[in-house]
UniProtKB/TrEMBL annotation, chain A:
Gene3D superfamilies: Glutamine Phosphoribosylpyrophosphate, subunit 1, domain 1. Component of the proteasome, a multicatalytic proteinase complex which is characterized by its ability to cleave peptides with Arg, Phe, Tyr, Leu, and Glu adjacent to the leaving group at neutral or slightly basic pH. The proteasome has an ATP-dependent proteolytic activity. It comes from Herrania umbratica. Component of the proteasome complex. Its main location: cytoplasm. One of its GO terms (molecular function) is threonine-type endopeptidase activity. The keyword Disulfide bond does not apply. It is found in: Cytoplasm; Nucleus. One of its GO terms (biological process) is proteolysis involved in protein catabolic process. Belongs to the peptidase T1B family. It catalyses: Cleavage of peptide bonds with very broad specificity. This is Proteasome subunit beta.
From TrEMBL, chain B:
It comes from the Eukaryota. Keywords: Cytoplasm, Nucleus, Proteasome. GO terms for biological process: ubiquitin-dependent protein catabolic process. This is Proteasome subunit alpha type. The keyword rRNA-binding does not apply. It is found in: Cytoplasm; Nucleus. Transmembrane segments: none annotated. Its main location: cytoplasm.
Amino acid sequence: MKLDTSGLESAAPVWAASNELADGFSAAPSFELPNTTDFDGFQKEAIQMVKPAKGTTTLAFIFKEGVMVAADSRASMGGYISSQSVKKIIEINPYMLGTMAGGAADCQFWHRNLGIKCRLHELANKRRISVTGASKLLANILYSYRGMGLSVGTMIAGWDETGPGLYYVDSEGGRLKGMRFSVGSGSPYAYGVLDNGYRYDMPVEEAAELARRAIYHATFRDGASGGVASVYHVGPNGWKKLSGDDVGELHYKYYPVMPSTVEQEMVEVAGA
Amino acid sequence: MARYDRAITVFSPDGHLFQVEYALEAVRKGNAAVGVRGTDIVVLGVEKKSTAKLQDSRTVRKIVNLDDHIALACAGLKADARVLINRARIECQSHRLTVEDPVTVEYITRFIAGLQQKYTQSGGVRPFGLSTLIVGFDPYTGVPSLYQTDPSGTFSAWKANATGRNSNSIREFLEKNYKETSGQETIKLAIRALLEVVESGGKNIEVAVMTKEHGLRQLDEAEIDAIAAEIEAEKAAAEAAKKAPPKET
């Protein structure tokens, strides 16, 4: 199978005027199909194999002071915890962050690729790319690989000329703009805490604590999430890492062990 | 020398690309076009050859929209212009699709100039025989811009410029008389510049004005005539003031 590098070129626009001269519009990416008797079944199996890998909890929300981004750091392969220290918040450039859920390699590679594209855009146009534009570039690339087994569930968070921006982009080619997102197997638990405690007018510390708590609660209940809860803040001057707390320690911080009063003491029985 | 005309991919011994220079000749024979940038407005004007009686003048539009906030006028081969304009319009929409943002004037100028350059470095094709004047507003900052491209594929930004027939005289006039203007003053300056080389009258020039709020607006004959009349009156007054001896008290 030849290595497919067309994803490294810019994604082709939907309509290209036909002309003799090569415009640098690449043809749709392709690779040879494997020889199987039942290709559709093989495809389904391949997708199923990758699915559980979205074992993670990531979340991001927009509030008055910018965007809060948080994630856990556990990587699991089925029931085996392969790492407790995965960096799931990827620094695309000094003012944009991406979160990782799904295939780690897919997320890392495509986020780095997005970083390259963003930098090239800056150099060509003498201005930073917007969060809208960056997320659209990524979404178009992922769409062109649709059905080929990429597993990416990411949020692009940043601050541009129009203010804070947050987009959810996935490997099905979907792209959503929103104020609050959580992605991964722990997301239902995180949503519960996040939706309950969210206010637009929070100060930064309160928002950070909300994000931290939401990750903690997700790691408490979801087996595929754990490790360290990292919290980042994206403000007008770029992103800054606020904290990275081990969720085990967070547990005892939130629910410290209280010496409880004993109702009945065990008394030593003397003799017979 | 004639041997270096054939395939444009060949340099002449003294470093010329003759096909490109011949294309510039074609531009010099085209209709005069002028562009002026004001603080809140940009104006394009082109010389209009008198329309034949039976010709439907609405189909001979020399100043066109590339997008809601960008317009283009050109001098040279009009058929080449049509091809270039279509490609530019597609690129404007394609940009909106891929980054959800309208193009900046600089971006689309770079695209058009890049296209013109490509045709100077490919086999079996000739360069586009036109120079363009591209005006518009930056979608976010609202700053107006005027750019010019030529058949060699170079481009640059201008406060005011002219291309096509007699462009040197128009440019000289603009260099002498340019000041930062806005609104009606900018329109007057553009028309004055064009009237230096074109017969006076609304039916010999086509003028279009672009503002941030209203986009591109073609001025109709009556308006142009009115402004031309104002200009004539101002000129006459200036002449009279010069002739009359200064009064001494």
